[in-house]
Batch of 3 targets.
Target 1
Amino acid sequence: MGHLRDCADWTAPPYLLRKPDSSLSKYYELSLKLNFRFPVDSIIPDRDDRIITQNDFDIFIDFIQIEINKEAVKEENELSKKEERLENKKRIKKENSEI
């Protein structure tokens, strides 16, 4: 029986992505965040396998845009809450100084 290598020791060989024309590089860039996992099951629920192809890129781009929008709304809400707390502190301070 052969020895199985630990999964942590295994790395896939680099895969060369081919593009039909070098002028497309100004429009497309592929960058993968280390250890970031897409929730494939919830992004493409009717998929039986976990294989992703270029045909799925639009779906993933939409997912990424939704996540970016959620993050922007979250940051905006946090900023609003922070500003509201600051205004409340100023109001209380002013009320206390008038007493």
Note: Residues 57-98 form the longest helix (42 residues).
Target 2
Amino acid sequence: MTTDTLLGFLLWAGSSAGLMAISSFLLERFPPFQKIASKTRLYIVLGIVVLIPQLVNLIPLVPQSTWDTLQPIWEGLVTSVVVAITFITSEVTHDTDKSLRK
């Protein structure tokens, strides 16, 4: 499944693999979620995994013109993330290389 368009990304994010990857990534970094009892967290994640894929069924109700309007914003966001990842990788490589030279 392609994620080069906003619509493609939303369809991927609503799939089991995408949803688990995104929700795990976000929830693990959300300190208040970590303070919740283990069993309650289980039910929250179960609710997310069951309910959010149902929202994918609403995508066909959104007019194509809306997707066309949002596409440039999506492309800018993806470009920004790629640049940020490239910068971070460059910095890590630079720091690692500097520490190896010592």
Note: The mean pLDDT is 82.
Target 3
Amino acid sequence: MKALLLTASLLILLGCSPDQPDCYIADATKLLDTTKIDGVTYSLVLKVSGFSDKVNFLELYKGVPEYDACGRSTLEPIYSDVVDTLKSNVVRIESDQIRFVEPSPKLPISFENLRFVK
């Protein structure tokens, strides 16, 4: 019994390392596109959050964000919206927000093909 308790305690202590981030499930992020408008670089990022029920977020950043091991960004998004389905593969930045515009017939509508237009 003592050996079992000692083994369990050891596993718990080794599993809680201060060097490891405590993030449970990290968000998956993908940089979709960047553009420069009036000297400011904007980045469009797809963030997929959740364990079994995934939620897609489109986030707009001023600058190019970097992420830690837990998927947390070094920058705060200036705009974020939940997107279930895409109706276009082209977006425009208007007043620091994302606006979908007429889709491009050259590419299928998907997150991987989502691009900025000016």
Note: The helical segments are 2-15.
